[in-house]
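Action item from last week, closing it out:
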Amino acid sequence: MFTLRQTRTVLRQVSISVQRVRKPPTVSAIRISCLARHLTSSTANMSYTATERGAPNSLEYCMYIKGPNGYVSPFHDIPLYANAEKTILNMVVEVPRWTNAKMEIDTKGKLNPIKQDIKKEKLRYVKNCFPHHGYIWNYGAFPQTWEDPGHVDEHTSCKGDNDPLDVCEIGQRVACRGDVLQVKILGTMALIDEGETDWKMLAIDVKDPLASELNDVEDIKRVMPGFLEATHEWFKIYKIPDGKPENQFAFNGEAKNKAFAVDVVNQTHDQWKKLVAKQTDCGKLCCENVSVAGSPFMMSQDDAAAVVEQSPAPKPAEAISSEVDKWHYVK
């Protein structure tokens, strides 16, 4: 078993070799690729498209998701499960691999569009902690899940972070923001972020060439050696360039297996059901939806369309500072 220092040394050597052959695609290249795919993804008998509003790379930018019958909330309306057996789940991609913009479902905005996180009136980007460039997986969330901030987890002894479950999709394709992928769960890590439980689910696109070989955490270790260690390091150090300490983990950073992860998903799905049924305090969360039967927060498709129409009109993308590409060397 490699020590953390040995693992980082190997990763740096591999990263340097890979970059000599192929550089990560630019944000512009990823954006063009996504537009070429029409920003469309399918799940079960449904298809979803992404609608951009405002100028990308600006404070006003947001992305809405549209289903076959109109606009939907990626937090509340996209089903968690993509098949009747509940073995395949839908994942909403917020951040494509190798990109830096800290995009997330806006849980406090109507229809919960995907927006870039803002701090002190500035857009947030994750730093490139050498040898990692941006996010090292397609990063997103499971719809219809919620980590209840009033619930103390029995394993971590910490409350939930008030967000949908985060997902790291580890397949080979660089997805697009707004994609709805069908994935299977492989395991999970438990990040403790400023005293809150922040589960990081590990999953793979069912269409990925390695999907048939990956069914649990032990398979990741066997088929993708070093990947779990890299994921642990990424979450541990990514805030250090911003002057914050290393992140902490439950279970000493160990990735828990699929069965454990499925239990976490089921628990947070039940917590979401109570949220959208107004059986628990929703605080500042926006729970409006167009499809959850019995929910007191239901809105019409016309009202949903009006939310989008009232948002900023689409504009050309603004420039991104070259500072985003800077390497940061963490000791």
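Closing note: The longest helix spans residues 258-276.
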